[in-house]
Amino acid sequence: NVDTTAHTVTSDAQYNDQISGPFNSIESTGLILPQNTFEFTFTMDGEYPYHCEPHPWMTGKVTIVKSFA
């Protein structure tokens, strides 16, 4: 978080990974304070839209594709 205020990463679809758990910073680490980070490991390919709870206009999407390497 390179901002001066706290944010969240909150799944729009309440995605719950079978291994990593919920894609939701509030449930795992709480608010993401300035200069802190949030990490999540996706185990399935797909598109995962998210937003910031305190700032719902702040949105994003993580896209995971299978690796053929």
Verbal overview:
- Helix content is 6%, strand content 26%.
- A hairpin with a 3-residue loop joins strand 2 and strand 3.
- The protein is mostly beta strands.
- The mean pLDDT is 94.
- The chain is built from one helix and five strands, in the order E-E-E-H-E-E.
- The strands form two sheets. A three-stranded antiparallel sheet has the order 1-4-5, with no helix packed on it.
Features:
1 helix, single chain, mainly beta, elongated, two-stranded antiparallel ribbon, about 70 residues, 3-stranded antiparallel beta sheet, about 5% helix
**Global shape:** elongated
Query: What order do the strands of the largest sheet run in, or round the barrel if closed?
Result: 1-4-5
Helix/strand/pairing category: mainly beta
Oligomer: single chain
Would you kindly provide a brief summary of this structure?
Helix content is 6%, strand content 26%. The protein is mostly beta strands and 69 residues long.
